[in-house]
């Protein structure tokens, strides 16, 4: 008997070893193949620097305020509330399935305002982007709501009729991909809006691969809504994301998610570039606002009552680097891994089409295609909201989470309460005024 168990273990050991060995060999081969074999999957990872993670939280204490001080609202009724807008008694947000909904702050009643695509295929409430649409950036301007849809651009929402009015038909060249992400109005010229495009290499459903890639194809557009004319004012961003104007109205701030930084540009300079169609500023020559931050920066919003800025953060490194951060200096490993995932996707897609169709196979196939397989390997915690000083850009306050990650935005509403949303979670969090100002 003992003899047989020993045999079994040695067989298991050998099988495990064989699987690991051959997977590694095949991955390396995929990594070494020329790029033209992967035209539909153009990943060319770059090296990047993240040594500042060793500084941890710059002396701040990690905490659980997003869980312990918050009340969760609309639980399991809003999936992936990415960006938030405060109008009257309601919080408006864009959620999965290409929908915009509003939540009454007192009664917590939820109304659907508009859907990007009313077709049958788009009724599934957890649908990702694609033809069904995905509203990423939201901004209130007076009583109006302006929204960005990830691939088609900017809309005004007629709140009474529940209609979308498309304001920019040709924002993106037809031969290019884009993830159109966030917007802010010029404080002096109400017809001018600044828009971030996160990547011109990947589309939204594959944004996770853009992160593995560390591509620097993101840019910022200025758009005149009266004429529809737009101009690229800055480019070369490693995932351009949230965009905001400082309290003194002198600077434009642009979040660079995978560089863990916020870049600062003089607004007068931006206007001059737009007016006289000068060539775009380069991200790597712009000034960093404050310091590099302890995680990926998503959206940024001004707290009008204090002049501070609030940012949503994907995953904080409270103490030091985490495992995946070490791959920053190893682009070949990232490429081999990504191409192996893509080859596996092709294989599963073939099996699903020709051999056997099954929900589990389809789920895995889609996770490999979109790169969400990467999210599955991350710890499901350490998201945060961070408060920055509007003048120095330095951290003033941290609200952490032990329960979830992927915080995308936080706002302070006119009552002074803090609301946060997350493209990964199915609720909105609220921390009342007295509980977040300590
Ligand atoms: C709406 O979705 C359907 C099904 O995916 C698609 O065929 C159609 O083109 C979409 N409409 C728009 C305007 O994208
Ligand atoms: C798209 O077309 C424009 C003008 O023809 C060209 O300059 C640009 O390089 C093209 N972009 C891509 C990604 O092919
Ligand atoms: C936007 O376009 C309108 C119409 O041509 C023009 O009057 C206005 O000056 C433009 N705004 C800016 C800031 O360039």
TrEMBL record:
Identify the Pfam families for this entry.
Answer: SGL
GO terms assigned for molecular function: hydrolase activity
GO cellular-component terms in the record?
Answer: endomembrane system
The SMP-30/Gluconolactonase/LRE-like region domain sits at 91-314
Instruction: Write the record's keywords in alphabetical order, separated by commas.
Output: Membrane, Transmembrane, Transmembrane helix
**Segments crossing the lipid bilayer:** 12-33
Kindly provide the name given to this protein in its UniProt entry: Strictosidine synthase/gluconolaconase-like protein
Q: Which organism is it from?
A: Dermatophagoides farinae
């Amino acid at each position: 008997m003992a003899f047989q168990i020993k045999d079994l273990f040695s067989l298991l050991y050998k099988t495990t070893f064989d699987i690991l060995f051959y997977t590694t060999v095949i991955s390396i081969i995929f990594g070494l193949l020329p790029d033209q074999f992967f035209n539909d999957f153009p990943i060319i990872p770059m090296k990047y620097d993240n040594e500042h993670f060793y500084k941890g939280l710059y002396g701040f204490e990690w905490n659980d305020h997003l869980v312990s001080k918050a009340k969760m609202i609309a639980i399991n009724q809003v999936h992936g509330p990415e960006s938030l807008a405060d109008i009257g008694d309601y919080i408006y947000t864009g959620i999965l399935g290409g929908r915009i909904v509003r939540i009454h702050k007192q009664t917590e009643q939820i109304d659907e305002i508009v859907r990007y695509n009313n077709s049958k295929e788009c009724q599934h409430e957890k649908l990702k982007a694609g033809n069904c649409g995905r509203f990423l950036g939201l901004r209130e301007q007076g009583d109006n709501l302006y929204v960005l849809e990830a691939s088609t651009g900017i809309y005004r929402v007629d709140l009474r009729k529940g209609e979308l009015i498309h304001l920019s038909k040709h924002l993106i060249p037809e031969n290019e991909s884009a993830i159109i992400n966030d917007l802010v109005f010029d404080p002096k010229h109400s017809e001018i809006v600044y828009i971030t495009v996160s990547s011109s290499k990947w589309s939204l459903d594959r944004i996770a691969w853009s992160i593995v890639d560390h591509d620097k194809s993101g840019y910022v557009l200025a758009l005149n809504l009266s004429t529809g004319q737009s101009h690229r004012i800055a480019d070369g961003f490693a995932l351009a994301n949230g965009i905001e104007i400082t309290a003194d109205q002198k600077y434009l701030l642009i979040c660079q998610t995978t560089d863990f930084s916020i870049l600062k540009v003089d607004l007068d300079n931006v206007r001059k570039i737009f007016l006289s169609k000068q060539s775009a500023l380069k991200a790597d020559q712009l000034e960093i606002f404050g310091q590099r931050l302890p995680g990926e920066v998503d959206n940024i919003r001004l707290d009008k009552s204090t002049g501070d800025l609030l940012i949503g953060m994907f995953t904080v490194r409270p103490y030091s680097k985490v495992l995946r951060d070490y791959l920053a200096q190893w682009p070949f490993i990232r490429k081999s891994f990504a191409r192996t995932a893509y080859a596996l996707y092709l294989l599963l897609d073939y099996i699903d089409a020709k051999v056997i169709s099954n929900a589990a196979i389809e789920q895995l196939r889609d996770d490999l295609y979109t790169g969400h397989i990467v999210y599955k390997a991350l710890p499901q915690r350490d998201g945060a909201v961070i408060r920055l000083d509007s003048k120095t850009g330095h951290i003033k306050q941290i609200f952490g989470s032990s329960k979830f990650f992927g915080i995308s935005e936080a706002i302070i509403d006119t009552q002074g309460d803090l609301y946060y949303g997350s493209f990964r979670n199915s609720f909105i969090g609220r921390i009342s005024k007295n509980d977040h100002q300590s």
